[in-house]
Design a protein that fits this description.
By secondary structure, this protein is mainly alpha-helical. The chain contains nine helices and no strands. It has one domain: MetI-like fold (Orthogonal Bundle).
Length: 213
């Protein structure tokens, strides 16, 4: 749930960010903006978690306590994967052949019509791969989510409920788990690995289909 919510937030923002820096921003602004996105991508996850715990969680607590909740976790995850999506989409846009731009200009298409009808369809496989990569990072994130999700073992009934993700559960319980408990944690890790494998396989399948279509 935290990964899906983060993707729903970060994907449109990441695509919009890449389109802005590639097609709308002046060159000097675009260069500085990309450097900022690269800086955000390099910040350690624990720093995001600390900011979420000290700044974001109290703000959400004013709306609905306790503040450390599923909503806080997905917002932090969205902020963490946003640079990955933005940089991946920017690289995908850059890889579109210049002939596509020239052909769209020769047809008299507006900038948005060119982006919507030519550029995004041509780059969609690489964009999808970037989104899958970001999803894999969100699924595997531990420290930041552990700090802001509340770590209550329950199924949430709303975005304001505290939760514990699989990765956080493994990190918190592995030190004292024994027997079947320890085996269950290994099964949780296997489930996470299978999720990531499914994402990678889906991205590869979409990429191959785009080549043959």
């Amino acid at each position: 749930m935290s990964t899906l919510g983060a993707l729903l937030l970060a994907t449109p923002l990441g695509i919009a960010s890449a389109l802005f820096s590639r097609y709308y921003a002046p060159p000097a602004v675009a260069t500085g903006y990309r450097r900022l996105i690269e800086l955000l991508a390099g910040i350690p996850s624990v720093v995001y978690g600390l900011w979420g715990l000290t700044t974001l969680a109290p703000l959400i607590a004013q709306l609905h306590p306790p503040g450390v909740s599923l909503l806080t976790a997905l917002l932090i995850l969205a902020l963490m994967i946003l640079p990955t999506i933005a940089l991946s989409v920017d690289a995908a846009l850059l890889a579109v052949p210049i002939a596509y731009h020239q052909g769209a200009a020769a047809l008299g298409l507006s900038r948005w019509a060119m982006i919507k009808g030519v550029i995004l369809p041509a780059a969609h496989s690489n964009i999808t791969s970037g989104i899958m990569l970001a999803a894999g990072r969100a699924i595997g994130e531990t420290m930041a989510v552990l700090m802001v999700a509340g770590n209550v073992v329950q199924l949430p009934h709303s975005l304001f409920d505290s939760v514990r993700t699989l990765t956080a559960n493994i990190a918190l319980e592995m030190s004292y788990a024994m027997g079947d408990h320890r085996a269950a944690l290994f099964v949780s890790g296997l489930a996470l690995m299978l999720m990531v494998l499914l994402l990678v396989s889906s991205a590869e399948l979409l990429k191959r289909r785009s080549v043959y279509v």
